[in-house]
Amino acid sequence: MPGTISFRRKAVDRTMKALFCLAAILVILPLFLIFFDLLIKGGKELKLTLLIDLPHPVGEPGGGIANGIVGTLVITLMTMLWSVPTAVMCGIYLAEYGKGKFASAVRFAADTMTGVPSIIMGIFGYILLVLPMKRFSAWAGATALSMIFIPVVVRTTEEMLRTVPTTVREAALALGIARWKATLRITVRTAWPGILTGILLAMARIIGETAPLLFTALGNQFWQSHLDQPMAAVPLQVFTYAISPYEDWHDKAWAGALVLIAMVLVINIAARVITRQKR
Amino acid sequence: MENVFEIRDLSSWFGENQVLKKIRMDIAKNSVTSVMGPSGCGKSTFIRCLNRMHDMTPGFRMEGEILLDGTNIYSEKVDPVYLRRRVGMVFQQPNPFPRMSVFENVAVGLKLNGRKLSRADISEKVERSLVMAALWNEVKDHLTQSGVSLSGGQQQRLCIARALAVEPEVLLMDEPCSALDPASTSKIEDLIEDLSEKYTIAVVTHNMQQAARISDQVAFFLMGELIEMDKSGKIFTNPSDKRTEEYITGRFG
User: Fold this and answer.
1) pLDDT digits (tens, 9 = 90+) for A28-40
2) What topology does CATH give the domain A51-278?
3) For residues A158 and A170, what is the distance between their CA atoms, to the nearest angstrom?
4) Which residues of chain A neighbour B88 with C-beta distances below 8 Å?
5) ipTM of the complex as predicted
6) Which DSSP string do the residues of A80-123 spell out, in sequence order?
7) Domain residues of chain A, as ranges?
8) Chain B within 8 Å of A195 (Cβ-Cβ)?
9) pTM for the whole thing?
10) Does B93 touch chain A (CB under 8 A)?
11) Residue of A nearest to B111 (CA)
């Protein structure tokens, strides 16, 4: 009977739709759980002093993670200072010039690096900078983070440039514009919102990285303005506080994690806003 | 009449595939030359040879000479960047630069091709180009609006203004109306006629009526060969080659 078949098809259709929807909920659920858990457990320590005070010793009430917040910002900015130009230019090379074996090798290397566990990057920074300099430093931390940042941005830059239609490049060249100028001022400009979004998402990723900093920036209980000295960072503080045996430090760890998530969230929202402006 | 382009035995290949076969042709100054023929006859490939747009196409190869004012444009001495400043191009699909305003679209060629121009000079040249492209009246109050927000026909005229802004001598147009509606097409055709007073224009078209309306001379291409080239009036009324006659009477193509 045709009516039965149609009923069955509709039922299957609805079931499948419900399954897809369920999967979508499962994907976003952890974010909300983490966020609410952090709000509950870290919320009580989330005071102004957390943001503006140095850490206090165990048992002494109060104290904050101000040096960690500044350290994280400093290390992140250092990383981006040399990683953004390098990664974007490498992405331009791959998208606009890279046709041969060398380009394929670079692409393969970048993809492989994206999959390398971040602790390895920490060890790399340790061997490359910490051992020769005989001290932990912000430099070493930023170097380790670059190894995570660069391959991601290289690939997103390349992908974004590939979305620029050939007709745009042809139109630019047909105006008698030199190729490097056409690439930088027209092709890259066309893809820029996408590239910037990629940069911000990679930035959000390195802000939360802990493992690469363990053997490089190390962490610091105090203010540190020298880049060749160990420097505090929020993820390191969360790590240190969380594995400590003290109850009040645990609360700080929760609050630190909340600060970290908030930073990442702000950057992600900025990325969203930029992507939306594109249209 | 003085010739701007003299094409001598131009053959070209994409890989193993020969696309153009020993083309010999002259393009006269301040005239409109149409290149017509069925799809795949090599007419687009041909016109893109004239400003070296194939330079970056992998597997492209050519023989013969293309002389622009007596100089072979494929000789070592010729910089393709300078060549393209003299020989501008309008493409089949309107392709304004996304993320640039109407003004920037026209100004960008002036800004990026190495001439030092004051802001006032640029504004003046942008306006003049938009006037020449018969677009000024429609966009003069929307210069900061995005170029891609214009209608298709306006976008194509914007592309023409962009090409004119860098003050080329020759304008190549690769089926400039094939993506446009009849009203926009007729605007562009009028424009081509006006521009031919100052510019040398070569237009690729598969539309015979259009070729008849706009051109001083017409070249008929078939399977990579130049079958016949003659004055527009002659080729449509009394072609010398049988294949041209078959094409214009609609027996193929």
Assistant:
1) 999 899 989 999 9
2) MetI-like fold (1.10.3720)
3) 18
4) 174-176
5) 0.91
6) HHHHHHHHHHHHHIIIII--SHHHHHHHHHHHHHHHS-HHHHHH
7) 2-43, 51-278
8) no
9) 0.88
10) yes
11) A177
